[in-house]
Specification:
Blueprint (H helix, E strand, L loop, with lengths): L1 E2 L18 H12 L3 H13 L1 E17 L2 E12 L1 E3 L5 E5 L3 H4 L9 E6 H9 L7 E4 L6 E4 H21 L4 E4 L6 H11 L5 E11 L2 E10 L3 H12 L7 E7 L3 H6 L7 E2 L4
Helix pairs in contact: 1-2, 4-5
């Protein structure tokens, strides 16, 4: 067991015995049979929508606090999660799709079953105090490993999607073609993308919302979204005048896919 101090996570009120995830298991099998991008993305979508079971132990830790000049003693609950360790001494959280998979790991019969989701798992993985390299779904069955960098990338995209979806609620959004294409901007971005192997394609549209015009760049990429979008922003800013803003979105978002449907990308990675 490994102790993770002050770990906060959103626990589900659903009993662990009710966690089944048949759609996730089907998506994992399909992805393992054919690991094409469509099956990988479908599997990831099921992962971020799923509830998982983690084996843990709960400990009551005495703590003192001061109230009105008096010391008051109480107990705080500390969670200790059982971690997987490979032959390189690298550690991972074990996330289980159901109790059948959980009990394949000997010693979990009496463990506390913590039900959680992807967002909480991601927060735990990214917490430096956890000292883990990611999490493994069903490590004693048809397992899938999510390394820390992949967890971070998915979490970034989910956070960005929430931000953009909130923005889109602000008013009617019109998507169309720019009257005049910003040739210098597109040339600078094409030159940049040609040196970035993680970018597959990029599209340019014009978005109008509440009277504000924005160049809308949709990027098909993998890896670190925060760094990818920061690089694009840094390159684009000298070419953006006061009339326009710059907006970006990963191609994986439904709004982005619809916005560029039938549109040719202004950049497409050369086939090797």
């Amino acid at each position: 067991m490994s102790e993770l101090h002050n770990m906060k996570m959103e626990n589900s009120e659903v009993p662990a015995e009710q966690i089944k995830n048949p759609e996730l298991l089907e998506a994992i099998e399909k992805m393992q049979a054919d690991g094409n991008p469509e099956n990988i993305n479908a599997m990831i979508n099921k992962v971020v929508a799923a509830k998982f079971i983690l084996p843990a132990m709960m400990k009551q830790i005495p703590q003192a606090r001061t109230e009105n000049g008096r010391t008051v003693m109480s107990n705080a609950t500390q969670v200790q999660f059982r971690l997987l360790e490979n032959n390189k001494k690298e550690r991972f959280f074990g996330a289980f799709s159901d109790t059948d998979e959980l009990f394949k790991w000997n010693g979990n019969e009496k463990a506390t079953k913590v039900v959680t989701d992807f967002d909480s798992l991601a927060a735990m993985v990214m917490d430096p105090k956890a000292n883990v390299l990611g999490f493994v779904i069903n490590p004693f069955g048809k397992s899938v490993t999510f390394p820390k960098n992949m967890v971070n990338s998915i979490k970034q995209q989910r956070d960005y999607m929430r931000h953009e979806q909130n923005m889109l609620k602000g008013g009617e959004v019109k998507v169309g073609e720019p009257k005049e294409y910003p040739i210098d901007l597109m040339a600078a971005l094409i030159n940049h993308f040609s040196t970035e192997p993680n970018v597959n394609a990029a599209y340019l549209r014009l978005v109008e919302q509440d009277g504000q015009l924005s160049y809308f760049i949709v990027v098909d990429f993998y890896g670190d979204m925060e760094q990818t979008f920061k690089d694009i922003s840094d390159i684009a800013q000298p070419f953006i005048d006061e009339q326009f803003q710059l907006s970006m979105m990963p191609y994986s978002m439904e709004f982005a896919k619809n916005a560029v449907k039938g549109i040719e990308p202004f950049y497409k990675k050369a086939q090797e």
